[in-house]
Write a structure and sequence with these properties.
alpha+beta; two-stranded antiparallel ribbon; 5 helices; 17% strand; globular; binds iron/sulfur cluster
């Protein structure tokens, strides 16, 4: 499996990196502390080589292996709900089974096997959907339904605060869509609505 590596260690410093470098030198010299500058440089160098695992949500097919193949007892992969692109639909493809008798919160009408999605009435005909992260096992059933029938506002992502940063992510090894990627620590979460203000 090809693992994305966007490490820039061995590349020429970008203008932004050069500016940060000069700022560090300036700050250290202004404070009269060469030791401080050395420490800051060492920290920067250490972090430059570090990565964390993320899901490329454009590739994920919600196959279910994220739930079963994480090394943790309950997967570090969770459903994220990008509410800014949600349609707040009454007939939510990520919440209701396709043949739901009624559009309500009864277990037989809902998709999530762990009851991790909370549906709240806003105003006719809109409903809000929230994920209880502690209950989510990363199965991706809701995300699959949302992507098939809705805006795709529900999707899967590896939560940084839960992930053990395994040297080789066990999910990446089996992912049929090659959707697990390594990102430098300096890059933020892959969030669908991160670009929206
Ligand atoms: S294993 Fe890959 S395709 Fe399957 S749910 Fe996880 S990221 Fe998506
Ligand atoms: S359906 Fe699966 S991925 Fe979605 S909230 Fe429930 S447990 Fe999490
Ligand atoms: S890196 Fe390890 S802990 Fe994190 S998602 Fe992959 S298998 Fe789970």
């Amino acid at each position: 499996m090809e693992v994305k590596n966007t490490n820039t260690n061995d590349k020429k410093r970008s203008p932004i990196e050069r500016r940060k470098f000069l700022q560090m030198v300036g700050a250290a010299l202004a404070g009269g502390s060469i030791l401080a500058m050395t420490g800051a440089l060492a920290r920067t160098t250490r972090n430059e080589g570090k990565f964390y695992w993320q899901i490329d949500y454009n590739k994920c097919t919600f196959c279910g292996l994220c739930e079963t193949h994480c090394v943790l007892p309950v997967s570090a992969v969770k459903c994220i709900h990008a509410k800014r692109i949600c349609g707040y639909c009454d007939l939510c493809g990520g919440y209701l089974v396709s043949n739901a008798r009624t559009r309500d919160t009864a277990a037989e009408n809902t998709l999530c096997p762990t009851g991790a999605i909370v549906r709240t009435y806003i105003e006719d005909p809109y409903f809000e959907y929230d994920i209880i992260e502690e209950k989510c096992n990363g199965c991706g059933i809701c995300a699959k339904g949302c992507n098939a029938f809705g805006n795709g506002s529900m999707y899967l992502q590896i939560k940084r605060e839960l992930c053990k940063d395994c040297n080789e992510c066990a999910i990446a090894v089996v992912c049929p869509a090659d959707a697990i990627v390594r990102q430098p620590l300096s890059m933020p979460y892959n969030l669908k609505d991160a670009h929206m203000s």
